[in-house]
Hints:
Order of helices and strands: EEEHEEEEEEEHHEEHEEHEEE
Largest sheet: 8 strands, mixed
Number of helices: 5
Mean pLDDT: 94
CATH architecture: Alpha-Beta Complex
Amino acid sequence: MSALSFELPDGTVAATEVTQVFNAGWAGRDRVQVQAHIDELAELGVPAPERTPCLYPVSPYLARQTSLVRAQHARTSGEAEWALVVTGPGPDDVLLTSACDHTDRELEVHGVAWSKNAAPDVLARRAWRLSDVVGHLDEIRIVGRVGHERALIQDGTCAELLPPTYWLDVLRQAGLHRTGTVLLSGTIPMVKGPDQFASRWETALVDPVTGEEIVSAYDVEVLPAPL
């Protein structure tokens, strides 16, 4: 089982053993844009979802705080997202952090759920209490950069995605709101130009109200061919 530990702004540390992980899919608030994205991916061979939005269960051990992702081949890439981490029973025990959903793009055409389980969800080592930022959550920027030159590949705000409160309600209704839950938000569109299949990914949440940001970065190493 994976263990996660987060430094909070007040200097305290919150930790939990991961019990379940979910990756949200097709989670944009603009449903017209979501459908356009589904149609775009369908042309690339990615199967359309049976429902939108949705949650893909992911193996708990894939929630990681790491600086290195080892991939089976060169066509894997990240997605800049926020993540919820439930560390206890109270409202102040729900944390918000930066995350990157690393995905196998070759496998994605056979099944989105399969592709999510083929690579880790990389989480930052710092977090905010959701209760401290929920009042201005929509203003928080989600930023993705790739390569050692840190080319900007994603830049948007939390207002583009369904809010954490939506997903917390979904978990409660399903009887799945429990300590050790990790939930990634789904992602925002990529900027055309930068190569998503880069050897390094960096994601950040930037709070314009407090001036704070949470950053996570990792290198991608392609494993050698079978011997």
